[in-house]
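Sequence in, structure out. Go.
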Amino acid sequence: MEVLNERPDILTFIKTICQERGIQDYTITNVSMNKKGEGFLAQFFMVTITDTTSDKHLDIALKTAFTDDRIRKMMPIRRSFENEAYFYSKMYPLFKKFEKDHGVSKDVEYVPKCFKESVEEHSEMLALENLKVSEFEIFDQTCLLDHNHISFIFETYGRFHAYSFALCDQQPKKYKKLVGRFNNVFENFLSDENGFFKEYLRRNVKTVRQYLIPGEDDELINKFQKYEDDGINRILHEIATEECDYSGILHGDCWSNNMMFKYEKTEGGKKLIDVRLLDWQLIKVGSPIFSVI
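Output:
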């Protein structure tokens, strides 16, 4: 709780959430934070809000933007939070309504519930459902995703992309207006005046190349060398500007840390039964293949 006392804006945000839900008297407990360095553009606070008159509680994952101007200058934090707040407040509800209007019988949730969002300068934040309470978990990033997980992810993306295509086809004006509000965060990475993100990608390419074996992988080594030297700008440019005849709305940041999985216990171990997609800050328009490569 001490760390929250240092952020009166967060306490005010929590108070507003409580008031909107009819909670007048409450306590804040079970406050925990993600580890330093785990969040690329944000910091998380896990809190439990308990209504003292009814003992009902609300478990929230508070996603808060970094306030340090040095970090904000390096990274497109504000534009990223504007994207995610827009996704939860406008876009996702529209998708769910579109789903309902077309009689889709299987009600599938793709994301955690969002209780409230704020895009106030230097105080951008989201109050999301704490999925850990519902037994969702992050996949161990030291392990490779197996076929079952990948199939589940592809199926989830497939539904999401299908609604995007259908909305574009059946309500093109609404679709155009919807995607017109996206901030193309990849353009920030492309300009990247201080070179932070480009150097980050360049190091990754160099690391991968080191696993290639001279004499056996010479063709691949030469290709990686090209990208290590001057290909990062081209990669970023293609990501930022890429569209095609079958473009749709994309998650924009597909990797296992941006998903949470739920399992059912079985005699042989556990069975994957659900997934939620996290971090919609890089949402963009492009080919669906971008989401899965």
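Check: The beta strands are 26-33, 42-51, 57-65, 114-118, 125-129, 136-137, 248-250, 259-266, 269-277, 284-286. The chain has a mean pLDDT of 87.
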